[in-house]
Amino acid sequence: HPFTSGTMDDVRLTTRYNENFLPTSLFGVLHEGGHALYEQGLDKNNFRFPAGQACSLGIHESQSRFWENIVGRSKGFWDAYFEIVNKLSENAFGAVSVEDFYKGINCVSPSFIRVEADEVTYNLHIILRYEIEKEIINGSLKVKDLPEVWNEKFYDFFGIKPPNVSLGVMQDIHWAVGLIGYFPTYSLGNLYSGMIKETLEKEMGSVSEISKRKNLKEIREWLKERIHSKGRLYPPKELILKATGEEMSEKPFLDYIEKKYDSLV
Asked: Assign residue 132 a region: left if phi > 0, alpha if psi is -120 to 50, beta otherwise?
């Protein structure tokens, strides 16, 4: 399972590979890299104090989802980096145009694996886990019944049924290591990332165009100033309000999804 660990001066990533499906590792690394950049952007002068620690899991996931999707799945990013990836993969995409590659990595379709899900269906994966998790905690669902309940809910949500537990209830590490209540932070991260994108673009221009110019450092420095360096000086809602000037809202994320995928479809 992709993961980030360590502190601001020693951040380490894990990833996984599938020789027949590049996004498995590529977007896993972008996601975990977002976590790592957050850790590296914290205030070194306040290391070991709350002001030098990450604000919350939701804010942490806003950074990972921002780099994975809003930057990493943008057209401008691939205008800039497609040829590099093609070269590193020994011309595996030689017959593919950057336009078709961009459409391919943004294909919307029901899928079994959460970490490989598209931006449109991803939050359904989170809702499914959250509903099951509540039933586990309140005692209305026994652990032994998880595979059956998972498969039933998954079919209700996506119209497909996992053929085995590896593609079903056993795919995530969170419950096994005791991270109960973690899954909703991914959806919070998506919503935060939409607000961050909207504000950043008002001040600096399109994320896609910045990426196309290979000016990713500009994005990182903006995020460091508005989010990373603030640590736990403010609770999440207040941090987002100070960073964007707006109260927490789902609208920027929904606007982003609608605009992007209307043009793709």
From this structure: alpha
Percent of the chain with pLDDT over 70: 100
CA-based end-to-end distance of the chain = 31
- Cite the active site residues: 32
Residue pLDDT, tens place only, 28-52? 999 999 999 999 999 999 998 999 9
Measured distance CA(261)–CA(244) in Å, rounded: 24
Residue 140 neighbours by CB under 8 Å, 6+ apart:
none
Residues 160, 33 contacting (CB under 8 angstroms): no
How many Å apart are CA 159 and CA 152, to the nearest integer? 10
Token couple for 64: 């990972």
Per-residue pLDDT for 251 more than 90?
Answer: yes
Which tokens sit at 201? 């673009």
Q: What's the CA gap between 95 and 53, in Å, rounded?
A: 46
Query: Which residues have a Cβ under 8 Å from the Cβ of 14 and sit 6 or more positions away?
Result: 1, 2, 3, 4, 32
SS3 203: helix
